[in-house]
Amino acid sequence: MTVNRPNTVSVGTIVWLASELMFFAGLFAMYFTVRSVLPEAEWNAEAAHVSLVFPLINTCVLVASSITCQAGVLAAERFQPVRTGSLLQVSRWGMNEWMTLTFLMGAFFVSGQIFEYAELVHEGLTISSSAYGSVFYLATGFHGLHVVGGLIAFLFLLGRSFRAKRFTHHEVTTGLVVSYYWHFVDVVWIALFLVIYILK
């Protein structure tokens, strides 16, 4: 009789993500607290600077990157690090191709967020211009830093995969925990998007 113990790396990652959830809960609490004490006319005037169209496109890209990331995990669980056909045969991609695409989509999201910040600063909405500006940049900025952290994790994952002489359970576990983090970042962004851009 054998005992299947949970993977300690996966468990540790989940525990760490739980602490990160508390961090973002604090950001949401800050946002709603400022929203409740600020005069509605002042809040609406500042929120009017924030558009919906481009952030919606950016959000769709980030959400789609969770799908490509999961496809990479499925390839890793098949112990398939690289594609077995041409680059155009997406169904035969390995983990490296899917995770590279996920990295590029994440980089697009970060670039889009920087572009949005530049536009808002040009319109006069900065982190110090108003209470709304402060909570907007803190909430979205800390999330952006987490996305950058995810991109670094993808580079580590891909580097480890390319260096490995044999694709083993260690590489599969690395891909799995990176996907946990990436899905977490995506879910948090969906909540932020709904609160900041939809509910305003």
UniProtKB/TrEMBL annotation:
The chain crosses the membrane at residues 12-32, 52-76, 97-115, 135-159, 180-199. It is an enzyme of class 7 (translocase). Residues 1-200 form the Heme-copper oxidase subunit III family profile domain. Keywords: Cell membrane, Membrane, Transmembrane, Transmembrane helix. Its main location: membrane. It comes from the Bacteria. It is found in: Cell membrane. The keyword Transmembrane helix applies. Its EC number is 7.1.1.9. It is a multi-pass membrane protein. Belongs to the cytochrome c oxidase subunit 3 family. PANTHER family: CYTOCHROME BO(3) UBIQUINOL OXIDASE SUBUNIT 3 (PTHR11403:SF2), CYTOCHROME C OXIDASE SUBUNIT III (PTHR11403). This is cytochrome-c oxidase. It comes from Isoptericola halotolerans.
